[in-house]
């Protein structure tokens, strides 16, 4: 177990930004700093930043290590089902990957009627819509209720700062962001990954509620899953043991994911408009505890954080000259 004291000391020693000038061309996302080399590799540095409602909210202790190590574990576990871009776990916060050309669509698989964002399936249902991304939804469903079967709800990948747009297969193809061939191949891979994720999570007492997959083509033309897979950032996880009782009581399921932070923001009246409110230390630590519990439940071993100063440690792991790094 990570002690409360260790959580608090980590609040001031987090990986929030990187600038490894000798590593390659840099692209900064909401959570990941990506470096692309001329020889066809990509180094994904997973920071401790957390985002919700399309805003970066701050940092969560040990979050980058949890996400990176868990994604690497899932890539290894599912490689025989769907190939991926992982080469090696280069550092607790760094994944070395094959550089791919990403599809400009995210493939989201949902198994439950839930969500708090303006684009979520529950928000649409609550407003009276009975169709979501081309799927008909029955009357009389409750929030957090299981759907008859998992559904694929693809979304365009909007530039940073803009909102993604969900739609049916036909609507997504009409945007011109992806070809029918790429869409259909990726959709089938997404369904395979979700079925395996559901099975493995159920064995560990967790419900895989929904998740996001991203795909890209290698230089050889193979379609592979990229970025991350089945992490508390890209997925919702609920405690299986308490789900039924909490539904009977009209209480939201117990989350082990980013929804803990989303729910806090919604309680403050924030849903993405304007600057987000600051996250109190108690919320940041609470989120860290849930991320770590998800890791330990899924992987089946204790999470032991690396406490070295991350910038110097990463530079050494990647054989970089620390004098050239910001």
Shape by Cα distribution: globular
Using only C-alpha atoms, the radius of gyration works out to: 19 Å
Please mark out the parts with pLDDT under 50 across 5 or more consecutive residues, or reply none: 322-326
CATH superfamily of the largest domain: ATP-grasp fold, B domain
Reported by name, the CATH topology of the largest domain is: D-amino Acid Aminotransferase, Chain A, domain 1
Count of individual domains: 2
What would you say the CATH architecture of the largest domain is?
2-Layer Sandwich
Helix content: 25-40%
Straight-line distance between termini:
32 Å
Average pLDDT number? 94
| Structural class estimated from helices and strands | alpha+beta
Count of extended strands: 16
- Specify the biggest β-sheet: 7 strands, antiparallel
- How many H/I helices? 9
CATH class descriptor name of the largest domain:
Alpha Beta
Following the backbone from N to C, one meets helices and strands in this order, namely HEEEEEHEEEEHEEEEHHEEEHHHH
| Percentage of residues in strands | 15-25%
Could you explain the architecture of this structure?
By secondary structure, the protein is α+β, with helices and mostly antiparallel strands. It folds into two domains: 4-100 and 284-324, Phosphorylase Kinase, domain 1 (2-Layer Sandwich); 102-249, D-amino Acid Aminotransferase, Chain A, domain 1 (2-Layer Sandwich), CATH 3.30.470. 32% of the residues lie in helices and 25% in strands. The protein contains nine helices and 16 strands. The strands form four sheets. Strands 8, 9, 12, 13, 14, 15 and 16 form a seven-stranded antiparallel sheet that branches. Strand 4 and strand 5 form a beta hairpin.
């Amino acid at each position: 177990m990570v002690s409360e004291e260790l959580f608090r000391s980590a609040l001031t020693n987090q990986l929030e930004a990187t600038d490894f000038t000798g590593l390659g061309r840099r692209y900064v996302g909401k959570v990941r700093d990506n470096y692309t080399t001329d020889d066809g590799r990509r180094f994904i540095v997973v920071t401790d930043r957390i985002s919700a409602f399309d805003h970066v909210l701050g940092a969560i202790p040990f979050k980058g290590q949890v996400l990176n190590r868990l994604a690497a574990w899932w890539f290894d576990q599912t490689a025989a089902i769907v190939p991926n871009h992982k080469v090696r776990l280069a550092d607790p916060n760094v994944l070395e990957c094959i550089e791919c050309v990403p599809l400009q669509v995210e493939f989201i698989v949902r198994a439950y009627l839930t969500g708090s964002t303006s684009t979520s399936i529950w928000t649409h249902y609550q407003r009276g819509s009975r169709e979501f991304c081309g799927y008909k939804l029955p009357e009389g469903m409750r929030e957090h209720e299981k759907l008859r079967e998992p559904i694929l709800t693809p979304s365009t990948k909007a530039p940073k700062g803009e909102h993604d747009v969900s739609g049916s297969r036909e609507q997504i193809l009409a945007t011109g962001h992806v070809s029918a061939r790429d869409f259909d191949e990726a959709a089938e891979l997404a369904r395979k990954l979700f079925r395996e994720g559901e099975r493995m999570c159920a064995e560990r007492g967790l419900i895989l509620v929904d998740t996001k997959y991203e795909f890209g083509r290698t230089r050889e033309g193979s379609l592979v899953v990229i970025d991350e897979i089945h992490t508390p950032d890209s997925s919702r996880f609920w405690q299986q043991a308490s789900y039924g009782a909490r539904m009977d009581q009209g209480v939201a399921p117990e989350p082990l994911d980013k929804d803990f932070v989303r729910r806090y923001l919604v309680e403050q009246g924030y849903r993405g408009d304007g600057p987000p409110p600051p996250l109190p230390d108690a919320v940041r630590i609470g989120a860290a505890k849930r991320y770590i519990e998800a890791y330990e439940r899924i992987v089946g071993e204790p999470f032991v954080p690396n406490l070295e100063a991350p910038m110097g440690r990463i530079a050494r792991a990647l054989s970089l000259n620390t004098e050239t790094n910001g």
